[in-house]
Amino acid sequence: MEKKKIVAILLVIAVALSFAACGGKEPAAEGGDAPTYKVAMEPTFPPFDTIDEETQELAGFDVDMMNAIAEDQGFKLEWVNMGFDGLIPALEAGNIDIIASGMNASEERREKVDFSTTYYDSGLVVAIKAGNTEIKSIDDLTKDMKVGGQIGTTGADLATELFEAGKISEAKIYNGLDVAVMDLQNGTIAALINDLPVTKAYMDSKPGTIEIVGDVLNAESYGYAVKKGNQELLDKINAGMQNLKDNGKFDEIYAKWFE
After folding, report:
1. I need a labelling partner for 229 at 20 to 30 A (CA). Which of 3, 43, 202, 213 fits?
2. Domains in the chain, ordered, with CATH?
């Protein structure tokens, strides 16, 4: 009888050790131990960040780039649609892992987050309603004019600076580009300050609606952002981006969205 008890005890120990070896966790998802990172964007910034009209899924240069980097580096992505002004706070709070949203890697933002190697050089432009002959550059904006910008962007910052300097009557800040352009066309605002590639993409998709005037302003460069101090993830993004440049995939994605 004593022998049977010993055998029973040994069986219980064996089962316990077997469970412990598994860590007491659920089976790993298909794909092994590949980590999954939450990557967020604000999808009203084409061609970088938009929504596919047919699938209604997030699309754009940033989506293709981050998906290609993830594949190269062996991790997975969970995409999150979020307002632009909420991106950095969400990253700081740990609610997301990566920002991929046509974000200017400015010195001010670098105080809050870490940026990858920059991947696109841009600048701001002044857009007006097609056919407007009154405004030929930023210098033609006057105290009786309202000027728009997209929330959280350097274009909105510049519009606000113009207002605070008394050069325009109001800086009207929008959550999305579509509404801003609509107000530009119906005369609610006289001009819109936004990033050059985004403005050009809108002009290409809807010719004859708006036009760019004057010189390119405030040169800036876009990068992908991670939480301050997350060097491991930053290294993965930078390594993946470099590999895409070396193997030609970067040029392929660029041509798809900009040529």
Report:
1. 43
2. 36-119+223-258 (3.40.190.10), 122-220 (3.40.190.10)
